[in-house]
Design goal:
Layout: H1 7-17, E1 36-40, E2 48-55, E3 71-84, E4 93-100, H2 110-128, E5 139-141, E6 145-157, H3 162-176, E7 182-188, E8 205-206, E9 209-210, E10 220-227
């Protein structure tokens, strides 16, 4: 975010950096990072969420960098939705979206803000949405149903390092995510006694050869699922340590 500085402020910053040892306006050395604060579980209705602040946020939640003159703040939340998949696919996908608060970029017009949101969404999506990184435990019923993981992030304040803050918020929200435990529900179609499908016929062979051709099993297939209740509200994402963030 571009900030207009007065001549006095520019002179103060310049003299601080030229001093021995050089210091920033907030007392940090040129190579010191601003304090980083990470908080998880900030959205009770989400499957996983996190808030990350670098420096002092302008929304009233301050980190240790009090008086740093503004900071960067991002909130990320994960929501799991049931999604239908084709028979030739295992299922499961990660969908990313980045939104920017107009208060974080007051100097940008609405079209420019939309472009920035689109660019940041592409960056996050290229890192987290690749099929090879999709968690296997997002599959509910193979070839039929799976969880679609929607990762939504909001930038509330941008005072630099916004990509770093975005990545940390996404990472923390994914680590905080719990996938609901499910169990399959099978449907057993009755088979008439006189109808013996070839693919399900059981043949009881004794010492003298086949003894019966009418002993059959009822075919069953998984068609749906139901949630199981566990105290920990589900399981963690399987490949959460494989994401390059």
């Amino acid at each position: 975010m571009t900030t207009a500085l007065s001549k006095a402020e520019i002179s103060y910053i310049r003299s601080s950096l030229l001093s021995a040892p050089p210091l920033r306006a907030d007392g940090r050395s040129p190579e010191d990072f601003r304090p980083i604060a990470i908080e998880t579980g900030v959205a009770p209705l989400a499957n996983g969420s996190a808030r990350v602040s670098i420096g002092e946020s302008r929304t009233g939640r301050e980190t240790e960098a009090e008086g740093a003159g503004g900071g960067t703040e991002v909130v990320a939340a994960v929501k799991l939705e049931v999604d239908g998949v084709g028979e030739d696919k295992e299922g499961g996908k990660v969908i990313c979206n980045v939104s920017c608060s107009p208060a974080a970029y007051p100097h940008l017009s609405s079209p420019a803000l939309d472009d920035l949101q689109s660019d940041l969404t592409s960056v996050i999506g290229s890192v987290l949405s690749h099929p090879s990184l999709c968690p296997k435990n997002l599959v509910i019923v193979p070839g039929q149903k799976a969880w679609a993981l929607r990762l939504d992030t909001i930038i509330f304040a941008d005072a630099g390092n916004v990509l770093d803050c975005l990545m940390m918020a996404c990472r923390a929200a994914l680590v905080d995510t719990r996938v609901p435990s499910t169990r399959s529900v099978e449907y057993r179609a009755p088979v008439r006694r006189n109808e013996v499908p070839d693919d399900i016929m059981d043949v009881d062979e004794g010492r003298n050869g086949p003894s019966s051709l009418l002993e059959t099993r009822e075919p069953s297939r998984v068609v749906d699922f139901e949630l199981t209740d566990y105290w920990d509200e589900g399981e963690v994402l399987e490949v959460r340590d494989s994401w390059p963030v």
